[in-house]
Amino acid sequence: MSRLVLFYRLIVRPLFREPLRTGLTVLAVALGVAVVLAIDLAGNAAAGSFRSSVETLMGDSDLEVTSTGGLPDGIVGTLATLPYPIRVRPRLQDFVTVEPSGQTVPLIGLDLIGEATDQIVTSVSSGYEEELKNPNDLEGVWAGSSLKVKAGSTIRLLMNDHTREYPVRGVFDDAAEGGGIVVMDIAAAQRELGREGRVDSVLLKVPDKPALGEWQKRLQAALPAGVLTRPVGSRTAENQRMLAAFRWNLRVLSYVALLVGAFLIYNTISVSVVRRRAEIGIVRALGASRNEVLGAFLGEAAFFGVIGALLGCMLGRVIATGALKLLSATVQALYVSSRPGAIELTFTSLVIALLIGIGMSVIAALSPAREAGSVSPTEAMARGQREYATRMHKGRDMLIALGLAAGGVICSVPPAIAGKPLFGYLSAILLVAASALAIPAITDGLLKFSAHTLQQFTGVEGLLAARGLSGSLRRTSVLVAALSTAIAMMTAIGIMVGSFRQTVITWMDSQLQADLYLRPAGSPAADQHPTIPNDLADQIAHLSGVAALDRFRGYDISYEGLPATLGAADFHAVQPFRKSAFLSGRAANAVYRDLLGKDAVVISEPFANKHHLKRGDSITLPMGEARVQFRIVDISFDYASEAGYVVMDRATMLRYLPDPNPSDLAVYVAPGAGLETVRAEIQKAIAGHNILIFSNRSLRMEAIRTFDRTFVITYALEAISVVVAVIGIAGALLALVVDRRREFGLLRFLGAATSQIRKLILVEAGLIGLLANLVGFFLGLALSFILIYVINKQSFGWTIQFHWPTLILVSSLTGVFLATILAGLYPAQVAIRLNPIEVIHEE
Amino acid sequence: MNAARGPAPLDVTPAKRPIAILDNVSKEYRNEGVTVRAVDGVSLEIGAGSFVALVGRSGCGKSTLLNLAGAMDFPTSGEVRLDGVATSSLDDAGLTRLRREKVGFIFQSFQLLPTLTVIENVELPLLLAGEKNVRDGSMLRLEWVELDALAGRLPHQLSGGQMQRVAIARALVHEPKLLLADEPTGNLDTVTGDIILKLLRRIVSEQGTALLMATHSSEAAALSDLIVHMRDGRVSEIVKK
C-alpha cells in the first residue's frame, strides 16, 4: 500500500502538473490502440459474416451440389431418386437491385410447394398454405423485413437487364441472415432470370452417419464429373481464405501507428528519467532499490498504457464503423458480394487491446527505465549536471544497423509461407529497426555538418537549434525515428499505390480498346454476372457503324479451394482490334489463335501465382456436367480481380455451357463511323432494357475511381500514423522547452527578443521535420520496393511497375514538414511566456 | 546613512555620472495570495566606472535589485533609469534593446550554453543583436581573460574558474556600461574566487564599466568602492570606501 502511495506521489501526481503533455502522450497511445482495434473489429465484421451473400437461407443443410453454369433440373431428380434418406432442396441464387434505393440483395429461389414443411420455407411464407391454392400466388416475392416493405404492397426489382414490379406476398424476419433478402418460388425465379430448366445448386441434408466426408464421396460418385459436391459454407470459407492476405496486410499497416506510439513512450519515459534525476538519487539514498526505481518508471509507462488503451478502445469502436464502410466497399468491389455483420466489441477484443496498449508502453519504456535503475545515488544527485551523460554508442549502433539492413535485404528473397509474405514483413521490420539504430549517427553528423550553414540562412537561431538538438541527441533521435517511421510508411504506400495506379492505367491502355462498353445496370460487384439477352447482342452487332462486338460471359468458379472467375470472350470477332498484353511478350494475335475454338485458356497473373501455374501447364475445370482439361497458352496481366480469371474462347465455352447470354459487351466502332451516332443507335436498340453504356473514357475513369476508393482505408491508416507522430513531436517539444527553460531564460538575459526564442523553437521543430523527412523518404523508398516486389506480389500476385508519384510525394512530405513546424507553435508560446528571472534563479 | 526612503546622497561627479539610478523602487510579488515585498523603497545611484557591492543574507533582495537595475524586471513602484532612459517607459522589445546595448550579466552558476564552444558562447550576445563579423572582437575579449587558447573547447571541458572567465568575456563582448554580477564567486573555491574578483576590479578600473555585484563575501565586498548593506528588502547601511 505504501508503495502505491509513493508511486502516486512521485510518479503519477507530477504528470497532472503537465496536463497538456500528459494528454498528448496518452492520445498518442490511444490512437495507436484505436487503429489496431478498429481494423480488427472491422475486419471481423466484414469477414466473419462473410458468408457469401448467396449462402443465405441455407438452414441445416449439410452439402451443396453445384456446377459451373448451373445444374439441369434432371440432377435434382437423380439426387431425389438415390437410395439414401437424404433431403433434396433445389435452389436458385442471384442478385437483384431494389429500386429506387439501389440496394443490391440476394435473390433466392426456393421450392415453396415441394418444401412446404421445410423450416426455412415456413419461416419465409407464413400463411402461404392458403395463398398457394392459387398457382398465381407464386408469382410474387417474399421480402426480408430489413427491406421495409409491407405484405400486400409491391417492390421494384432489377434482375439482369430488366426491371419489374413484383407483388410482396409476405415479409419474414431476415435479421439472422444479415438482412436484405428476396425469396421467390423457384419456378418463377427460373423464368425471371432466364434459367428455365436449370437450378444453381441443390442443398442436401444427410443423416449423421456415416460422416459427412463419406456422404460427399458417395454422392459425388453418383453425379457427373463436372458436378461438385461440397459442404455448405465452402464458398464462405473460400472467400475468407482469399481475403486473408488482404486482412493481414491491413493488420500489419495498423501496427505502424502503434509502433510510432512506442517510440513516443520511449521518449516520454526517457525525459521523465532525466527530469527526475535528483529524485532518483534521493529515493535511492533513502533506501529504494534499483528494481524499485525500474519498477516505478515501468509503472509510469503502464499508467500511460492503461489510460491510453482505455481511451483507445472507445476511439477504436468509433473508428471501426468508418473502417467497416471502407472495407466493405473494397471487398464488394474487388472480391465478393457480402453483407458485413455487426461490429462486436467483445470482452476478448477489449482485453487484447488493453494488453497491446499496456504491453507496448511497458516494452518501449524498458530501456530508459533500466538506465534509471542503474544510476548510483551520488551520480544522480550531483549538482551542475543537467543530464545523464548517457553515452550513445553511435558507431556500434551504426554497424548493427548495417547488419540489420543486410538482413532485411536477404529476407526479401524467400517465397511466401502458406500464402503469407512473412519474410516480406520481416524484411520491412528489419529495415525499420536498422533505420532507428542508424538515426543517432545520421542526425548527429548532419546537425554538426549543417550548423554553420543553418546559421548563415536562419541566423544565430539556426546555430542554437542545431546545437540544441545535437546536445540532446538521444531525445532528438527518438523523435526523428518516430516521425520518420510514419513518413516512411506514408512514402512507401504512396509509391506503391502510385505505381499500382500507373500500372493499372497503362494496362487499361492495352486492355480497354473498345469504343463502348455495355453491362446490365445494378451495382458492379466482382462476383456478380447479370446477363444481357443474346438476341439483343445480335441486334447491336448488326448495327451499321459497329465493326465488331465482343461478348464476354463470366461465371464464378472454385479452383483449389479459392474463388475465381471463368470467362469467355469472342476472340474471333475482336482479333483485329484487341491487343492485350501477355507475360510471355507474345503478340496478342498469336495467343488468340491458340485459343480459338480449342480447349485452351489464358489465365491471369494473380491466378497463376496463387495456383503456381505457368504457360504450358494444364488445368481441369468443371464445365457443366463435365470436367474438361484445358491447356494454358499464356498468362495475362490483369488488375480487375485478385481472385483471378480463366478466360477461353466463347465458342469453346458454348460447347460446354450452352447459355449464350453475355455478361458484358464491348463495341468496336468502324473507322469513319461517328461514335455518338453509333451510341445513339445502340441506345435505341436497348430501350426498355436496364443496360448501362460507358464510353472507353468513362469506363476507365470509373475503374480508376474504384481503384482509388479501395485505398482510402490505407491512406487513412497512414494519416493516423503521421498524426500520432506529429502529436508526439508537439508533446516532446513542450517537454524540451520545459527542460531547457534555463537556457531560454539565459538567452533573454543575453539580449534575445521573444521573437528570437520563438524562431529558435520553430527552427528546431523544422529541423526535426527535415531530418525525419530525409530518413523517412529513403526508408520509405526501400519499404516501397518490399511492398511492390515482395509483399504485394506474394499476397496478391500482381506485377506492379515502379513509378514515381512525384506530385503526391512532394506534397505529402511538404505537408508533414509544415505540420511539424506548426507542432512547435504552442511550445514556442510556452517558451516565450517563461519568466527568465524565475528560471535563472531556480537553483 | 540609515535605511530610509528617498534618494541616497552620493557624490556624483562628471567622471562618475550615474549609469543607473534607482529612485525609491519597490518590488512586490504575489505568491498564493500572499504579497512579498522583495525590495522596499530603495534609492541608489551607480556611477559610471564605480564598483558597488550589494551585501546581505539570502533573501534580502539583492538579486531582485540586480534584475531591476538590469532592466530585466519592472519595479512595482519607483523608477529605474538606465543610462538616462526610464525602463518603465519601454515595452518588452525596448527593454531587450536596452539590455543588449547597456548591460552585461554574470551569474553564480556561470550559465554557459553547454552545446556551444567557448568562443561561440562569448560571441552569442553579438549574434543575438544581429551583428556580423563578430569573431575577431570576441577573440579579443577571450584574450583579455587569457582563455583564447581554449576557444574551441566545450564548457564541460573547463574548470569552474575558466567557465566564469568565459562568462565574464561574454558579459563584456558588447561593451556594456553596466555589469551586474550575482554571487560571481559563489560556486568557486577561495583562490579561484580571488582571481575572478581581481578580474572584475580590473574591468572597472581599466574599462570604466560600472559594476553592481551581489555577494555574501566580505572579501568580495572589500574590493568595491561602495558597499550597500541590505536587510529585508531595504538598504540598511551604505559604506563608502
Describe this structure in words.
The complex is a heterodimer of chains A (843) and B (241). Helix content of chain A is 58%, strand content 16%. With 843 residues, chain A is α+β, with helices and mostly antiparallel strands. Chain A has a nine-stranded mixed sheet. Chain A has a six-stranded mixed barrel with strand order 2-3-7-4-6-5. With 241 residues, chain B is of the alpha/beta class. A six-stranded mixed sheet of chain B has the order 6-7-8-3-9-10.
The shape of chain A is elongated
C-alpha end-to-end distance of chain A: 34 Å
The portion of residues assigned to helices of chain A is: 55-70%
The CATH class of chain B: Alpha Beta
CATH architecture of chain B: 3-Layer(aba) Sandwich
Helical content of chain B, roughly? 25-40%
Number of helices in the DSSP assignment of chain B:
7
| Overall geometric form of chain B | globular
Biggest β-sheet: strands ordered side by side in the sheet of chain A: 14-15-13-16-12-11-17-10-18
Residue share in β-strands of chain B = 25-35%
User: What percent strand of chain A?
Assistant: 15-25%
Outline of the structure:
Chain A is of the alpha+beta class. Chain A contains 29 helices and 18 strands. In chain A, the strands form two sheets. Chain A has a nine-stranded mixed beta sheet. A six-stranded mixed barrel of chain A has the order 2-3-7-4-6-5.
Compile the SSE list and pairings:
The complex is a heterodimer of chains A (about 850) and B (about 240).
Chain A: H1 2-16, H2 19-48, E1 63-72, H3 73-80, E2 87-99, E3 103-110, H4 119-124, H5 128-131, E4 141-144, E5 154-159, E6 162-172, E7 182-185, H6 186-193, E8 198-205, H7 212-221, E9 228-231, H8 234-275, H9 277-285, H10 290-334, H11 347-374, H12 377-381, H13 394-410, H14 422-458, H15 460-471, H16 473-511, E10 516-520, H17 534-541, E11 546-559, E12 562-569, H18 571-574, H19 588-595, E13 600-604, H20 605-610, E14 618-623, E15 626-636, E16 645-649, H21 650-656, E17 664-669, H22 675-685, E18 691-695, H23 696-710, H24 712-739, H25 741-749, H26 754-796, H27 806-823, H28 825-833, H29 836-840
Helix pairs in contact in A: 2-8, 2-10, 2-11, 2-24, 8-10, 8-11, 8-16, 8-24, 10-11, 13-14, 14-15, 14-16, 14-26, 15-26, 16-23, 16-24, 16-26, 16-27, 24-27, 24-28, 26-27, 26-28
Chain B: E1 18-31, E2 34-47, E3 51-55, H1 62-69, E4 77-82, E5 85-86, H2 92-102, E6 103-106, H3 118-128, H4 135-144, H5 160-172, E7 178-182, H6 190-207, E8 210-215, H7 218-222, E9 226-231, E10 234-240
Parallel strand pairs in B: 3-8, 3-9, 6-7, 7-8
Antiparallel strand pairs in B: 1-2, 1-4, 4-5, 9-10
